[in-house]
Amino acid sequence: MKKTNLLQGTLDLLILKALSMGPLHGLGVSLRIRQITNGAFEVGPGSLFPALHRMEEAGWLSSEWGESENNRRAKFYQLTKPGRRQLETEAKHWTLISLAIAGALKA
Amino acid sequence: MKKTNLLQGTLDLLILKALSMGPLHGLGVSLRIRQITNGAFEVGPGSLFPALHRMEEAGWLSSEWGESENNRRAKFYQLTKPGRRQLETEAKHWTLISLAIAGALKA
DNA sequence: GCCTCTCCTATCGCTTATCGATATGAGAGT
DNA sequence: ACTCTCATATCGATAAGCGATAGGAGAGGC
Hints:
Chain A is built from four helices and three strands; from the N terminus they run αβααββα.
């Protein structure tokens, strides 16, 4: 049983949302996404880390090295102000698209 | 950083849905998608035709040449049986994902 | 007849996101 | 020592969508 693939474009949104609930290191983001989507989304490292780097590059996240709960070296990410704005923008965008498609399917 | 209009993966779903309401030629599909999404989605030819070809290749659509309402040569597409199954599958999949993300954003 | 507008299909090149596999390192447990 | 797990990272492949562009053919004005 393959886990459902992501819709492209939703990963950023989920990462932003996950981090809006507090700073996390990379794998923590992956876990929180699994939690808040009730296991519907499984994000592998090959998707996660490039996305985090891209988003930090875009100025939406900032990072610093620290220690995880298991005393492992880990990079902690948190939202910047532009990141919060981006979350709002993407959440709105998602809502619009989601309603449009739901409406189309109902018709 | 360009915003893509569509969420990747939703184009197939919209095309399948559009054709489930009756056969259409290419540009007709584009128009019907605009209608049923209340103008939320504009599908240009550079997205539309490759998608139609891909989906015909996949066996979801069949096509035949005919004449449009304006007496123009046009290729009419209709759903095959596998295409209808695919529509059901993708619609279900969309609903699941959509609910999962909506839930995640609410939290 | 001729010109232009619109309709209709088609393709090329480019960008970008995601995924599977793989690599590396270090603390934890035995 | 050895292995398991945590944690970050990167590479190559795949694929979708988009802008631009092209070309053919009927419609309608003149």
